[in-house]
Design goal:
Helix content of chain C: over 70%
Radius of gyration of chain C: 20 Å
CATH class of chain C: Mainly Alpha
Subcellular location (chain C): Cell membrane
Structural class of chain B: alpha/beta
Chains: A mainly alpha, B alpha/beta, C mainly alpha
Mean pLDDT of chain C: 90
Number of strands of chain B: 10
Number of domains of chain C: 1
Distance between the termini of chain C: 10 Å
CATH class of one domain in chain B: Alpha Beta
CATH topology of one domain in chain B: Rossmann fold
Shape of chain B: globular
Protein name (chain C): Amino acid/amide ABC transporter membrane protein 2 (HAAT family)
Largest sheet of chain C: 2 strands, antiparallel
Strand order of the largest sheet of chain B: 6-7-8-3-9-10
Oligomer: heterotrimer
Low-confidence stretches of chain B: none
Order of helices and strands of chain C: HHHHHEHHHHEHHHHHH
Helix content of chain B: 40-55%
Main location (chain C): membrane
Number of helices of chain B: 10
Pfam families (chain C): BPD_transp_2
Shape of chain C: globular
Number of strands of chain C: 2
Order of helices and strands of chain B: EEEHEEHEHHHEHEHEEHHH
Largest interface: A-C, 47 and 42 residues
CATH architecture of chain C: Orthogonal Bundle
Number of helices of chain C: 15
Structural class of chain C: mainly alpha
CATH superfamily of one domain in chain B: P-loop containing nucleotide triphosphate hydrolases
Largest sheet of chain B: 6 strands, mixed
Distance between the termini of chain B: 45 Å
Membrane topology (chain C): Multi-pass membrane protein
């Protein structure tokens, strides 16, 4: 029914999208692994970052790829502040509260954006938005290939950060044993905030990689956040390699479901995987927690 | 009344309990002692249905209850307390105990009356309206006991109800436990406070490294060389005997 | 003792029932009807999430099932509105039981339970948006045919009383549960599952009972929404908005308390209207205010509005407190 090239192209597209999904899931899984919280506002922060890319491009003429560095720093600072001064103090250390607070944050952010930008959908017009590479019978969008490569590089960098730097060691120490880390003199609230900041910073990068081929409106983060949850659950909560593999897998699943089931049912495969994994294998498919 | 037959419990590669057996006759207070990490609490959890043993059986009043879940065993008449007290923090003392009382009394008025009666019996009569979270350690231990009693058990499993209490608090609660037995409740207790074990128990089992190493009256068990070694290390019994001989 | 707690319920119901005699403004009556529908959904959430401590992010699954089953039965099969509502509520309860059975048996708690309920609601939303018999993306439009037997009323007051009647049932059911063995066991499960099991509480069956009743109440809200607006689509019926509304109201009013949902729903929507008046008709401003209120409640008033009131009263009348508690 479907010719091989069409299926191959769908899979390839799935992989390209999946890498960016993985990047989005990376921040979520890192925050989960260290703070043991589910950040419901993750999607809303992504929407913020995408608007920031759009603003920078529209009003400052900044190319999305050049915006990566400044936006990463800005979003790190925002994430740090939000965890240190809002989520941390307001939750009184209770996990259920954190879930509710991040839900509250996501509602506030999403609707503040709606109030500011209305519900219009906006996209960037760069001169390379429609450039493609031809590989045999397949056409690969240049910008999406950059997105893929960028996501893989960032995943690698994050892994290095955790494995090889002092900050990374402090983060891993807090993730393993909060009390012990505090006893040896690590400032746990600072490490929490740094982790949350890194989570937001990866979203800024994801936004920069997404915007050349995607659009933004105040609700766009919602579409990503459930996908990201699925990837995190699938890859094992807190696992960075799990997030990468899970992201690629989900990207392909979504793309193939869209091909076989049609646009409107395309996302259902993701949710069904999500439910099945939670019900039957809540530790994730790809190995243990970090 | 209760028979534990060759219970083995492995967690991954670790054997917490290896082929332990014990028997509790009706109307007695039986102690379960042993060094830290011996597997006492694990054995309790298996008897109460909180863990499925890797092997072995639990027999209660002649029938095999090994496959039954915890709440079914509670209905049959097995109640347990927790070593680390587990109050319902958001509820007051009356409501805490009433949760236990509801097991045999469906109506709220009856369950509350029962809860109040049990509270008085363990010395919490004056604290009925206090939040459970505001109780002292001794108060929480009593609450733990009261909730279990409110289920009107035939067999009561007490996991270190005396730990963390000061000597006068222990003196206060020992007669309460004896009174519970005198009213017909059989008791199996894990305890570290040896004074209480000597005082209360008709019979004592000693668990060390997951194995039952001795059994008998408290007095017999205390002089059993295996027990002394389990607590004080290998060769300790010989050293003690040698010391006694040299003093003589 | 068994009558405990019914007096404030009667008071609240009486005030709302008499409202149409004092106020004739359709804007106000519309507001009250809408808030009562939200209250019903929130009462459902409160039983499971507030009393039972199992926070769901997917009560839209029950609201939407109520609305869709009722709409399909009426539109496609011409079945009487009251009968359709009864069947729809049963269907909502069944969906609740199924979701509960799957997720509680798998041992999901806390964040995991919240996420899985959200995912179930999303699956239903996507299906309703795609399937033919649900009207697809166009949704389902009911025929306007006013009359008692069709559960459609021209008078806003009549619909207010209908909604209030259901809310009253919700309040009485909640209060009966609060005074019962089931209620005590449900609270015990919230506070400490292990300890509850040790006291003979069948945790799984208590949770299942709670989610079934909870889903039924929220399904009633879906049915009423349908009868009032005569139109639903997948994003209304199974949308995240109603899951959030159902959760917010009890959080704000007083989590786990019988009057929490109704107090919270009126407080929130009152604030929402106020913020619209203050900021003009900027889209999203009322919802942004809800989010802020949620954060503030969690941070500063975990007992919600009722918790705050109680604190204030006890602080000013320390003697009255002990008198009341011993009464």
């Amino acid at each position: 029914m479907y010719s091989l090239p069409i299926v191959a192209e769908a899979m390839l597209n799935g992989l390209l999208t999946g890498a960016v999904y993985a990047l989005i899931a990376l921040g979520l899984t890192l925050v989960y692994g260290v703070l043991h919280i589910i950040n419901f506002a993750h999607g809303a922060f992504l929407t913020c970052a995408m608007f920031a890319v759009w603003l920078a491009n529209t009003f400052l003429g900044l190319d999305p790829y050049l915006a990566i560095l400044p936006l990463t720093l800005i979003f790190f600072a925002i994430g740090y502040a939000v965890q240190r001064f809002v989520i941390g103090p307001a939750s009184h250390g209770d996990d259920g509260n954190i879930l509710l607070i991040t839900l509250g944050l996501s509602i506030v952010i999403e609707n503040a954006l709606l109030a500011g930008f209305r519900s219009d959908t906006r996209s960037l017009m760069t001169d390379y938005s429609f450039n493609v590479f031809e590989v045999g019978p397949l056409l690969i969008s240049q910008a999406r290939l950059f997105g893929f490569l960028g996501a893989v590089v960032v995943t690698g960098l994050l892994w290095l950060l955790l494995a090889a730097t002092d900050t990374g060691k402090a983060i891993r120490a807090v993730a393993k044993e909060k009390l012990g880390a505090r006893l040896v003199g690590i400032n746990v609230s600072h490490v929490f905030a740094v982790t949350f900041g890194i989570g937001c910073a990866t979203l800024a990068i994801a936004a920069c990689l997404l915007m050349p081929t995607f659009y933004v409106n105040p609700r766009v983060g919602g579409a990503f956040v459930l996908v990201a949850f699925t990837i995190v659950v699938l890859g094992g909560m807190g696992s960075i390699t799990g997030a990468l593999i899970g992201g690629l897998f989900i990207g392909v699943v979504e793309s193939l479901c869209g091909l076989f089931l049609g646009e409107s049912l395309g996302q259902i495969g993701i949710f069904i995987i999500f439910i099945l994994v939670l019900l039957f294998r809540p530790t994730g498919l790809f190995g243990a927690r970090a | 009344m209760l028979e534990v037959k060759d219970i083995t419990m492995r967690f991954g590669g670790l054997t917490a309990v290896g082929g332990a057996s014990l028997k509790v006759d009706k109307g007695r207070i039986v102690g379960l002692i042993g060094p830290n990490g011996a597997g006492k609490t694990t054995l309790f959890a298996i008897i109460a249905g909180f863990l499925d043993p890797t092997a072995g059986r639990v027999i209660f009043e002649g029938s095999d209850i090994t496959p039954l879940p915890a709440h079914e065993r509670a209905k049959l008449g097995i109640a347990r307390t927790f070593q680390i007290v587990q109050p319902f923090a958001g509820l007051d003392v009356r409501e805490n105990i009433a949760v236990g009382a509801y097991l045999r009394h469906a109506r709220a008025a009856e369950a509350h009356a029962k809860a109040e009666a049990v509270a008085r019996r363990v010395g919490l009569g004056g604290d009925l309206d206090k939040q459970a979270s505001s109780l002292t350690v001794a108060g929480r231990k009593r609450l733990e006991l009261a909730r279990a009693l409110a289920t009107e058990p035939k067999l009561l499993l007490l996991d270190e109800v005396l730990a963390g209490l000061n000597p006068s608090e222990i003196r206060d609660i020992v007669p309460v436990i004896r009174a519970i037995r005198d009213e017909g409740v059989t008791i199996l207790m894990i305890e570290h406070v040896m004074q209480a074990v000597m005082n209360l128990c008709d019979e004592v089992y000693v668990l060390a490294q997951g194995k039952m190493i001795a059994q008998g009256t408290p007095r017999e068990v205390c002089v059993d060389p295996h027990v002394v070694e389990a607590y004080l290390g290998k060769g300790a019994a010989d050293r003690l005997r040698a010391e006694e001989a040299s003093h003589a | 003792m068994t009558r405990r707690g019914y007096l404030p319920i009667l008071l609240v119901l009486a005030v709302l029932a008499l409202l149409p005699f004092a106020v004739t403004s359709n804007v106000v009556l519309n507001f009250v009807v809408f808030v009562l529908i939200i209250t019903l959904a929130a009462q459902g959430w409160n039983l499971l999430g507030g009393v039972g401590g199992q926070s769901s992010f997917g009560h839209a699954a029950f609201f939407g099932t109520g609305a869709y089953v009722s709409a399909i039965l009426q539109v496609r099969f011409g079945i009487n509105a009251w009968v359709a509502t009864a069947v729809a509520v049963a269907a909502g309860a069944a969906v609740g039981w199924i979701i509960g059975f799957l997720s509680f048996r798998a041992g999901l708690r806390g964040s995991y339970f919240a996420l899985v309920t959200l995912a179930f609601a999303e699956v239903l939303r996507i299906l309703a948006n795609a399937a033919g018999f649900t009207g697809g993306a166009a949704g389902l439009l009911m025929k306007l045919d006013v009359g008692f037997w069709n559960m459609q009323f021209t008078s806003r007051a009549a619909f207010l009383w209908l909604a209030l009647g259901f809310v009253a049932v919700g309040l009485i059911v909640s209060q009966m549960i609060a005074n019962s063995r089931f209620g005590a066991q449900l609270v015990a499960v919230r506070e400490n599952e292990e300890a509850a099991r040790a006291l003979g509480v069948d945790v799984l069956s208590v949770k299942l009972k709670a989610i079934t009743v909870s889903a039924a109440l929220t399904a009633v809200a879906g049915c009423l929404y349908l009868q009032y607006f005569l139109y639903i689509d997948a994003n209304i019926a199974y949308g995240l908005w109603i899951s959030v509304e159902a959760l917010l109201a009890p959080m704000v009013g007083g989590r786990g308390l019988v009057l929490g949902p109704i107090i919270g729903a009126f407080t929130l929507h009152g604030l929402g209207e106020a913020s619209k008046l203050l900021a003009g008709r900027v889209p999203g401003i009322d919802l942004a205010a809800y989010g802020a209120v949620l954060i503030l409640v969690v941070a500063f008033a975990p007992g919600g509005v009722l918790g705050l009131l109680r604190k204030l009263r006890f602080r000013s009348q320390p003697v009255a407190k002990t008198a009341e508690e011993t009464a």
